[in-house]
Amino acid sequence: MLDDFLVRAGLAGIGTALAAAPLGCFVVWRRMAYFSDATAHAAILGVALSLSLQGPIILGVLSTALVMAFVVQALVGNGLAQDTSLGVLAHSALAVGLVAVSFLTGVRVDLMGYLFGDILAVTRTDLALIWGGALAVVGLMAWRWQRLLTATLNPDLAQASGISARVEGMILMLSLALTVAVAIKAVGALLIGALLVIPPAAARPLVRTPVSMALVTAGVGVTAALGGLLCSLNFDTPTGPSIVCVAASMFLISLLASRVFKRALAQG
Amino acid sequence: MPETLIEARDLTLAHGSRAAIRQVDFAITRSEIVTLVGPNGSGKSTLVKGLIGALPATSGTVSRADGLNIGYVPQNLQFDSFFPLTVRDFLCLPQRQSKADIAAALSNAGVPGLERRQLSALSGGQLQRVMLARALMMRPDILILDEPTQGLDQPGAAAFYQQIAHVRDDLGCAVLMVSHDLHVVMAASDRVLCLNGYICCQGAPEVVQSAPEYRALFGDGSAGAFALYRHAYDHAHEPNGHA
Predict the structure, then answer these.
(1) For chain B (length 243 residues), average pLDDT per consecutive 10?
(2) What is the pLDDT of chain A when averaged over all its residues?
(3) Out of A9, A94, B16, B102, which residue is the most buried by the measure of CB atoms under 10 Å away?
(4) What per-residue confidence (pLDDT) applies to A262?
């Protein structure tokens, strides 16, 4: 079954969407959209690093994403990095990565694949890494769920209950780096941010509790991944962007549906 | 000698490079009610953050009793509108609670049946009571309330203070309250601390007059729960000196 590239692509999409779902909710709740962009964009630098050291790509991506996440976290924690500084970091990380890749002479690099994803070329090894990473992220989130929620709602409230807001922040950073490493194959460094933010945004009008938001987000993400894959096959469009387009359409539908529903409710 | 729950010694806390409070000595013991008063920017909330461990000490020490259970009610609860949270979810942070316990806690707090409401849809008074219910569900050794009557009208505030007095009597926990209102503090306070970057004075609340006009305003139900604490600013608070 795994011999079929389509099956592998589908499974890779599902794994990526599942990893992104709970984390994406926290990204939205904590207003960390730029934060996740900066971390994802740093992945290109990781690609350059891996290629120049001839190491496995996923390790380079994971380590640079991890470093970037903690650097940004430290800056935010010190009150230095606000909207503008985060924007500076996010775009600079990408530019530095692209320049670094261009220095790699003698290596043929499919840059487009790393920027926009190459889900149709997922190998069995990739699949194992994606699902391993996804399960790790989901496991981490499930384990710390109540503590993460408390720290997200109010850091002081968490601290008073003996929960270190700093530790929970680091758990999220670790999950973010893992998710970036998992998702780069499916949607590419440029669109990981979209995969983190759009499905939770689409889920929000339909839910009333954090758990249901994470579940609906996962549903939206999986549907977007599979729908994007189908669109890409039928219309010969790039897969990563197609996945994000489907997610964006679902956001629009969810928004309109909730508006109409509310109006109907108001009119009795 | 009553058990000391939280003690700060020579505590200095800074926001950035600016010291918000300097060399504060503070201790609170079991079943004691302490009210922290002081003008805006006097470091009341900063001291509370230091006591609960949310802000590391620049110098000095904070020690909390082993296994101390803190029930904390923050000044406000602002969160992103994309964060869906029912009252039940909130009461389950950080520990999951049974449906029966949640119903009982809300009922005791005077806001029964709110379980399925969104936290963001509550009125100021309801939110205060729900936050109190959550803090009490933790079976606290000490209840810490940061400006708990903010957003309440005066009868609402009176009722709230009265409830705090009941809670202390029922649970035997200590209560540390922050108020920026120098004139109205609980008569039930054992101690009032006036903070202005440092502790400028402290002691039992001095009941200057029984203030019949306040009683008229708050109704007979609040009789005794309120008194005028006429501290006012009858002494100068120098920036780094003494009162």
Answers:
(1) 88 84 92 84 89 92 92 89 94 92 90 92 88 92 89 77 84 87 64 82 57 36 40 46 43
(2) 90
(3) A9
(4) 81
Measured CA to CA, the distance from residue B154 to residue A139 in angstroms comes to 48
Asked if residues A188 and A240 have their Cβ atoms less than 8 Å apart, the reply is: yes
- B-interface mutation test, from A153, A164, A166, A206, most B Cβ less than 10 A away: A153
The answer to whether the beta carbons of residues A116 and A191 sit under 8 Å apart is yes
Write the DSSP symbol of residue A120: G
Residue of B nearest to A144 (CA): B94
Peptide bond between residue B94 and the one before it cis (omega within 30 degrees of 0): yes
> Stretch A89-106: mean pLDDT, rounded?
85
B227 to chain A, closest Cα gap in Å: 30
Give me the residue from A161, A162, A208 closest to B118, CB to CB.
A208
Predicted pLDDT of residue A132:
96
Give the pLDDT score at A77: 64
- Judge whether A184 and B134 are in contact, CB under 8 Å: no
Collapse the DSSP code of A166 into the 3-class scheme (helix H, G, I; strand E, B; otherwise coil) and give the result.
helix
Q: Which residue of A has its CA nearest to B138?
A: A161
At which residue do the structure tokens 């990781």 appear? A46
Distance from CA of B67 to the nearest CA of A (A): 9
SS3 A28: helix
**A26, A156, A209: best to mutate for the B interface, most B CBs within 10 A:** A156
DSSP string, chain B: -PPEEEEEEEEEEEETTEEEEEEEEEEEETT-EEEEE--TTSSHHHHHHHHHTSS--SEEEEEE-TT--EEEE-S-----TT---BHHHHHTSSS---HHHHHHHHHHTT-TT-TTSBGGGS-HHHHHHHHHHHHHHT--SEEEEESTTTT--HHHHHHHHHHHHHHHHHH--EEEEEES-SSEEETT-SEEEEESSSEEEEES--B----HHHHHHH-GGGTTTEEEBTTTT-S---SSS--
Partners of B90 in the beta sheet? none
Give B193-233 pLDDT, tens digit per residue.
Answer: 888 888 877 777 654 233 343 333 333 443 344 443 434 44
d(CA A138, CA A127): 16
Q: Reply yes or no on whether the pLDDT at A7 is more than 60.
A: yes
Check CB contact of B240 with chain A, cutoff 8 Å: no
Phi, psi of B9 (to 5 degrees): -125, 125
**Whether B84 contacts chain A with CB within 8 A:** yes
> Which has more confidence, B232 or A133?
A133
> What count of other Cβ atoms lies within 10 Å of the Cβ of residue A31?
11
Measured in degrees and rounded to the nearest 5, phi and psi for residue B61 equal -135, 155
